[in-house]
Structures are given as structure tokens and as C-alpha cells.
Amino acid sequence: MDPLEREAIELAHGAFDAARRGEVAVVEQALTLGLPIDARNGRGDTLLMLAAYYGHVALVQTLLARGASPEVANDAGQTPLAGAAFKGLDEVARALLEGGADPNTTMRDGRTALFFAAMFDRLALVERLLAAGASPALRDHGGLTAADAARAFGASRTAARLDALDAAA
Q1: Which are the contacts of 157, defined by CB distance < 8 A and separation ≥ 6?
Q2: In the predicted model, is pLDDT for residue 168 greater than 90?
Q3: Cβ partners under 8 Å of residue 41, min gap 6
Q4: Which domains does the chain have, with CATH numbers?
Q5: Is the pLDDT of residue 132 over 90?
Q6: Residue 134 CB contacts under 8 Å (≥ 6 apart), including other chains
Q7: pLDDT of residue 4
Q8: 126 or 6, higher pLDDT
Q9: Which one is predicted more confidently, 21 or 2?
């Protein structure tokens, strides 16, 4: 490996570590030096995925403003919005939705961010996703809706909210 390749790899590794820590200036410097905005690490995570998953709203906003795609899934098929919903990171989800994330993007198993928010009884996040256009009628590959998933996990508030939408439809 020549020194230039080694330097590029070190730059990328440093940027991914900085994204996990929410270090906006370090990530911006790597991008300015030529790191592609949607570069992926060994697990398929982008800088945006890492910033979102670790709850760094300012970095999420910075990356979206610089053109990062909120729809790039990692090797596990998870999008930044699904990761934020899984972890209950409402402000990160807000930033992603404002930055163009589609609330109805499905993972490999057909689940959406709404499924995760509903399963873990995160009512405020469910409301945010619904307001952004998340469809409670979508079904995963097993035929379950987000309301079904909420009931299966004992998430009574979100199950009731989603059931009320179904009854009103």
C-alpha cells in the first residue's frame, strides 16, 4: 500500500470515529479533504448513520446540509431513521425527516421506523413519524403492522394510538 492510500484510509477511519463521537469539525475537515459524503465503513455505515445512531443532532444536520442521503441503508439493511427510532432519538428523527428521510422506507424484513417507535412505546416519536407521513397500514414480511408489533411488545400506548387510526380509516 502506498503512503497516499494509507493516508486516505486513516482519514476515513478518523472520520467514522469522529462521527460516532459527534465531532462536527473533524468530519467536516475529512469531507473538505475529499472523503465522499456517503462513504461507508466496513459494516456499510455512513457518517450519517453513525451520527444518527449515536444521537448527534448537530452532526446529522451538518451532514444532511452537505448532501448526505438519509436513505442509505447499512449492511444490516437499517437506515438512519430506523436507527434513530430504534434508539428513541426523537430529535435525531426530526432532523432526518426535515432533511428528507422517507418515513415509509422499509428494511429488508419490511419494517419501517414506525415499527420500532411503536414496539418500544415511544408515543412522541410515533406521532412525529405519523405527522411526516408514516403509514400505519404497512406490513412487514410476516404480515404484521406497527400496531401488531406494538401489541407483541406490550407497548399499549402506541398500540392504542395506531388502532385508533385504523378504526377511523
Answers
A1: 121, 123
A2: no
A3: 12, 16, 50
A4: 1-102 (1.25.40.20), 106-169 (1.25.40.20)
A5: yes
A6: 103, 104, 112, 113, 114
A7: 65
A8: 126
A9: 21
Instruction: Tell me how far apart the alpha carbons of residues 118 and 127 are, in angstroms, rounded to a whole number.
Output: 10
What is the Cα–Cα distance from 95 to 150, expressed in whole angstroms?
24
Which whole-number Å values give the CA distances from 57 to 21, 22, 96, 115, 116, in the listed order?
11, 8, 9, 22, 19
Tell the burial category of 135 from Cβ atoms under 10 Å away from its Cβ (0-12, 13-18, 19+).
middle
The x, y and z cell numbers of residue 38, run together, are 456517503
Residue type, 40: R
User: Strand, helix or coil at 86?
Assistant: helix
Cell numbers found for residue 154: 406490550
Q: Is pLDDT above 70 for 88?
A: yes
